[in-house]
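Re-run with default settings, no changes from the original entry. Doing this only to confirm the output is reproducible before filing.
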Amino acid sequence: MIVIGTSLQVHPFAGLVDVVSRSTPRLLINREAVGPFDTGRWRKRSPRDSVYLGDADAAVRLLARELGWEEELDEMIAKGRKELEAKWAQQEKLYGAKGPTEKDEGVGKPVEKETKAKEEKAKGAEADDSSKERTAAAKEEGKEEGKDVDALAEAIGKVELGPKSKV
């Protein structure tokens, strides 16, 4: 079981980590250890559990690379981007240069598409910079704590996969 990016606070999802059999290896990819993966003062982590503390995108990329799935991951990302770009182009044709109104989106006031696009682009640039900073910090943190690649390698070693298994 691979658990990615969660606080494990909201049920019923939070309870799913305890539903699998006791022999099922579990890997948490998260910025912090949570739920049964958290080894507080009194709690001991199960031998079946592995934890990767850091950026989820970086961890998934590393996991895909280790499993020999990186090329497929890149293809899926490229395909998804093309689908999004086609959807955006279709929306631009439907709504024109002014874009949709909030009424079209269920609210009621006109919204300038260009303004939204500029805001989204700025947010995206900030998010990219922030993500790069977090990834670098997570790698440093992982090196310091020895929980970076080792945790993924350990988790991969616990999982028996057939040839070219699909996620």
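The longest strand covers residues 26-30. The chain has four helices and three strands.
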